[in-house]
Write a structure and sequence with these properties.
By secondary structure, this protein is an alpha/beta fold. The chain is 30% helix and 25% strand. The chain binds adenosine-5'-triphosphate and magnesium ion.
Length: 215
């Protein structure tokens, strides 16, 4: 369970990013975080995954006070629990699909064989295994999207977070991404920050933000 309690974020230049956010996200729930540009979605996600610290309040994930963790513990917590899908994928273009997918596993002490097994599972699941040894830069947009999803899931995280995942995708790929979310929905805790209408009225819980507050 994710508990967001009385979170404020005030940036150094006094911009108010978030104001008294309170939200509980249950295990295996899918949340669509919506709201206009500048409403605070990315700010909330970065605090949620302990990439930035709130000014006030705390985030508790499965009884761990993640917003109070020192940075080195926070990065281990992220690696073990969270799969993050970025708007622009953030893949490494000059290395292979396989090498990109195993990056979240490299700081762990699992064997090469086990790494290959884990990578094979997600490459099969997202239909990219036939490109395993290709460099990412030669892949199509949809293939890169599938590599990014596979990388986010390779460590079998219980929480998946996607920030504007369809912002750079055409209608067909956006629909494909929605189908992946539907497939994973109910098995993982999923939070998708988006202003893409495609995700609305799909049966997911929708949480709307405006000017740094949750409506
Ligand atoms: N480092 C920063 N310093 C100052 N203000 C910031 C910083 N990062 C974000 N903000 C401000 O905080 C507010 C919320 O930004 P945020 O990026 O969370 O919005 P968003 O809902 O994700 O928008 P978008 O839909 O465009 O991605 C905005 O007014 C933004 O300008
Ligand atoms: Mg954003």
């Amino acid at each position: 369970m994710i508990e967001i309690k009385n979170i404020d974020k005030i940036y150094k230049d006094s911009t108010v990013g978030l104001k008294d956010i309170n939200l509980v996200i249950n295990d295996n729930e899918t949340i669509i975080l919506k709201g206009k540009s500048g409403s605070g979605k990315s700010t909330l996600l970065s605090i949620l995954v302990a990439l930035s610290k709130p000014t006030n309040g705390e985030v508790i994930i499965d009884d761990i006070r993640v917003s109070k963790l020192p940075d080195s513990f926070a990065s281990v917590f992220r690696r073990d629990n969270i799969g993050f899908i970025f708007q622009k994928f953030h893949l490494i273009p000059t290395i292979s699909v396989f090498d990109n997918i195993i990056t979240p596993l490299l700081p762990t002490d699992i064997s090469t064989k086990e790494m290959q097994l884990k990578a094979d599972i997600v490459m099969k699941q997202f239909n990219i295994i036939h490109k395993k040894n290709q460099k990412v830069k030669v892949l199509s947009g949809g293939e890169q999207q599938r590599v990014a999803i596979a990388r986010a899931l390779v460590n079998n995280p219980s929480i998946i977070i996607a920030d504007e995942p369809t912002a750079n995708l055409d209608a067909k790929l956006s629909h494909e991404f929605l189908e992946y979310i539907k497939e994973l929905s109910g098995e993982k805790t999923i939070i998708v920050a988006t202003h893409d209408n495609l995700f609305f009225n799909q049966g997911f819980k929708e949480v709307e933000m405006k000017d740094g507050i949750v409506l």
